[in-house]
């Protein structure tokens, strides 16, 4: 009887375990399949693929640097714009917000994350790009001479991509940062207040306590920006060039896949595109792993530094708050 | 004393800046919703839902093929993502300290962060290239892969919330672990899991990138999973980058339908979770 029960439990464990293993297999499968399909391009171009600047399908010359540049440049700038706003939202919603406003405001910021990226792209083309164009045109000539603002004011380009990415990254980073702040023990803030801290100084103490998790949340947002496809494709200008100017049209790894993949006629072209997919996969994988590790680190119980430990007798007085 | 005044001022300013950042984030949301509604409503009529796309250059036509296509694609995706997601979530929640559970949890998080366009490239390699044919099956597969990690993590989180006393009761009555989970614990968590599935459905219905070169596109009404299939998102994309005024109007209408879908599902989930919380706390 008991043995039969144990047998059935083993069946349950194996049966559900199969699907858990399937999940692992999918991730490994993605990596393997991308690597296998891009062999042709890897063997032909080797390391040159990463540093080559020319992307010319007609003559069979493929260099991915403009796309890698475009992806990293737009994502880094978007993160720079989004980080303070995301942090501000996380602090406001977790520490300062009146209880009655918290639910609706949380819902609205999360709605920002739920809107499909194609809708962002559509809005980007018809609303944001014209606004950016008139901003670019109104910039005084003295500023336009700077390398950061050089080039014709066409509207589509790096600036539009950065703005739309920033809008899309904010809700992701802020929702994770909010969770992290929520996990900070109340005793941290209470201790700060007890020492006469102002509201901001108490928040700063909580932020410092949560620093690894906060950085993790920002990196997670960065990962989102790296892989964002539709909205960027529609506003970045799709021109494979490396320019520091915000006004210049650029290109990103995800965008070149979206635009050219279905039309790639020969094997080498397709293989080169798949290698771009492989690079994108590898980058986002590393970024995600880094952010997860940081956030996990945060959730581990923190050991108090030596000097701060209380004498044995006092430990029971106010320990578990 | 001067020092204290400065500190208090700094504190007040920072508090206001935090509030301001919420406003800064909500301004684009308001603008997006305003434009989607005001532009979309103009092209939203009976024809939009019932007609097929008009030939290039002619006015009119609608999104019937795309609406049906999105329903079929999401259906195919859900058909295998929901079982895989729920069962793997059960494993992770039931045997949390095994090595496989740690790996699966990590795989789910990783898969969640994989760019959707990369999922499209992967599915192209395994489901389009071998058959030399874009198909709805491939599109559904891509959407399903996007959906699995969300369902897995939701299931895991919700199973952990079920009070242990429920499971212990079942075990005390002589149920096996599997039976206790399937007949007692899982049903207790079911409303929450269904809410999570609805949210995941709304999310994959809004995906464009994984469909571009898997389901591709189709100007005709098709329900054949072996053929290319239209979807709301891809059609909005194609219409948005086209040079035709009339198509732009229809793209806005398509966007309105997508946003309405997302909003509806989010509100539904919100009310469902609220009721759930009320039931659990007994208020």
Looking at this protein, list some descriptive labels:
heterodimer; A: 321 residues; mainly alpha; MetI-like fold; two-stranded antiparallel sheet; 15 helices; 2 strands; globular; disordered C terminus; B: 283 residues; 76% helix
Q: Would you summarize the structure shown here?
A:
Chain A has 321 residues and is mainly α. Chain A contains 15 helices and two strands. In chain A, a hairpin with a 4-residue loop joins β1 and β2.
Q: Output the number of helix runs of chain A.
A: 15
The figure for the number of domains of chain A is 1
Q: What's the assembly state of these chains?
A: heterodimer
Percentage of residues in helical conformation of chain A: over 70%
CATH H-level homologous superfamily name of the largest domain in chain B: MetI-like
Number of strands of chain B: 0
The CATH architecture of the largest domain in chain B: Orthogonal Bundle
**Could you tell me the mean pLDDT of chain A?**
87
Global shape of chain A: globular
Main sheet makeup of chain A: 2 strands, antiparallel
- The number of helices of chain B is 10
The H-and-E topology of chain A, N to C, reads as HHHEEHHHHHHHHHHHH
Residue runs with pLDDT of under 50 for 5 or more positions of chain B: none
The third-level CATH topology of the largest domain in chain B is: MetI-like fold
Order of helices and strands of chain B: HHHHHHHHHH
- What CATH first level of chain A would be assigned? Mainly Alpha
Rg calc of chain B: 23 Å
How is the largest sheet of chain A built, in terms of strand order? 1-2
CATH 4th-level superfamily of chain A: MetI-like
